[in-house]
Amino acid sequence: xxxxxxxxxxxxxxxxxxxxxxxxxxxxNDCPVHHSRVLDEAQLxxxxxxxxxxxxxxxxxxxxxxxxxxxxxxxxVSDGSPRVPVAHEASPEATSGRGVALVDLLxxxxxxxxxxxxxxxxxxxxx
Length: 127
Known about the structure:
Number of domains: 1
Distance between the termini: 16 Å
Helix content: 25-40%
Largest sheet: 5 strands, antiparallel
CATH architecture: 2-Layer Sandwich
Strand order of the largest sheet: 1-2-3-5-4
Oligomer: single chain
Structural class: alpha+beta
CATH topology: Heat Shock Protein 90
Shape: globular
Number of strands: 5
Radius of gyration: 14 Å
Number of helices: 3
């Protein structure tokens, strides 16, 4: 664990502004020692996961940010649905459907943890 920044948790309402709140939360809780290189990517991927949670998952929706003391970032989004997101190839004309593919492309690891009453989708960004 990081000696500078403790883990942070945000409860989100299932509304379209949740993604904006998630980006602001990551910026406000960014570890000044370890996260500076990955904040933009973390905000992009968190936006995708929070948007999916609002559209397909439902409450309760939470965002957790953890600094593990390395120059990377661990972000997790939980929601109330047990449905696991699946990466699929969107057509060039599609206006949605790329979120999980972006998470897979930009993170060095990601996964889904099933829980009682929902799931948590997490990703780790390397420095």
